[in-house]
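A favour, since you know our structure tokens better than I do. Could you add the entry underneath, on a fresh line?
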Amino acid sequence: AAPGRCEGVAGPPASTARPPAFLAPLFYETRPAGSPALDAARRDSPDFDQWVRANVVEHRVPGYAIANLSLKDPAQAPGDLTADQMDQVADLAEHFSFGELRVSHRQNLVFPDVRQDELHALWQALAAIGLATPNLGRVTDIIACPGLDYCALANARSIPVAQAIQQEVAQLDLDAIGELTVNISGCMNACGHHHVGHIGILGVDKGGREYYQFTLGGSSDQQASLGERLGPAVAFEQVPGAIRALVECYQSIREPGERFLDTVRRIGVEPFRDAVYGQGRGTRQREVA
């Protein structure tokens, strides 16, 4: 037989040798780049403008946009939808995005093909069902595994930690903080991808109590990296304050326009370690294990 070939093995049938019909490109309308209606709506509504800046991404086809639906409303568990919201989102996908809806690895939803001049109507519909939170890629856009509340493998809870962090940083200016991902796993199985969060949180069991380790500098983008462990684990109730300390440290030492991840890569974790555990760390102000 020729190298790389197996005798008696047939090639792919004709039906699989060509792309199936559902992979064919969508029929996009020919539209101008930009939308005067979109620009006017953004000027008239600061809330809508904030949502566009945070959750809408440029599309490769002129006149269209990619709209991200954040499932990180602090009023409910991160990544969750009610049954009614699921039905309503499906209807909105049919109306605004060629009937297509995607799930992202950050536990959010994506409308991949929305006309720019319909973004305002989509935002209004999302706001009416509680799905217009403008925090994509921000510190409150937290990945969290089910944790000890629902998973028999977990060592610690994840969902209550995420909700406590959201409450702690709720009054901070998310736009001023910029891109900052927080990922939480309740055990070393790492279902929350804590090791590739800009801030990673790993739940551990210490003598029957829940503690949490931090890592900094992880990333899952094209410059992927694993986070570096910051120091000893802290008690459950101290996690929100530690996250706020990390954010405030970053804001005090970053260069103009610098993301959290870039700051960590530039100067390392030592300033952040001092912010969480205290300078010198001879006498730590937090309960650690």
Q: What stands out?
A: The chain has a mean pLDDT of 90. Residues 46 and 52 are 10 Å apart (CA to CA). The radius of gyration is 22 Å. The beta strands are 56-58, 64-69, 102-103, 109-115, 143-144, 182-185, 199-206, 209-216, 228-229, 234-235.
